[in-house]
Amino acid sequence: MFRTIWSNAGLDLYVFPYRVTATAPGCGVIDVLPNSTSRDMLGREAVNGLYEYFITKFGPENSIEFQNARNNLIKSLAAYSIISYLLQFKDRHNGNIMYDEQGHILHIDFGFCFDIVPGGVRFEAAPFKLTHEMIMVLGGNDQTQSFKWFEELCVKGYLSCRPYMEFIVRSIIPMLESGLPCFKENTIKNLRQRFVPTKSKRKQHYTLEN
């Protein structure tokens, strides 16, 4: 859904959808993410940080391979950041964060979303996961060209979703009766509020940038 929205808007944002095939009530098979590894596994392989991993895998920072991988990271990081905020993905630990052979970040395991949190304790105040090591790959601070491009993609990607608010909401409403614990009384109300429909596009653009 989000990939289609961004494609229609002409935005080069990257997500990797994978299928879940139901095999029985409460059971199913999930697609494997090919040619990818979790951040947790990289840590077990004695990788000190994401920047060091990119250097080792793609070459020095001034190489074309590194720059292409960094661009792929930015496009996918922006996409998953927007989705994580709108759908309120929680529990984004290193076992749920993957990196593929081209440098894209990929998210898996969406058991905690919308209005459910691990242990019932809301401790994740950040709207999405953006770590220091990710920023290091983007140049080390929020003033670099790469980080500015990441911010720009986040703003454009979010704003392009706002006209589709009701379409996204309607796709979720049928799931409210599923009995899944992530759906509460105010789930749809809270979702609509994250689109800030009462703000003009210009005002919301300013808010996001600041």
TrEMBL record:
Record keywords, A-Z: Kinase, Transferase
Molecular functions (GO terms): 1-phosphatidylinositol 4-kinase activity
GO cellular component, as recorded: cytoplasm; plasma membrane
Signal peptide stretch: none
One Pfam match: PI3_PI4_kinase
Classification via SMART domains: PI3Kc
GO process annotations (BP): phosphatidylinositol phosphate biosynthetic process; phosphatidylinositol-mediated signaling
Domain PI3K/PI4K catalytic: 1-210
PROSITE patterns membership: PI3_4_KINASE_2, PI3_4_KINASE_3
Coiled-coil segments on the chain, per record: none
Family the UniProt entry places it in: Belongs to the PI3/PI4-kinase family. Type III PI4K subfamily.
Protein name as catalogued: Phosphatidylinositol 3- and 4-kinase family protein
Source species: Candida albicans
Lineage, opening ranks: Eukaryota, Fungi, Dikarya, Ascomycota, Saccharomycotina
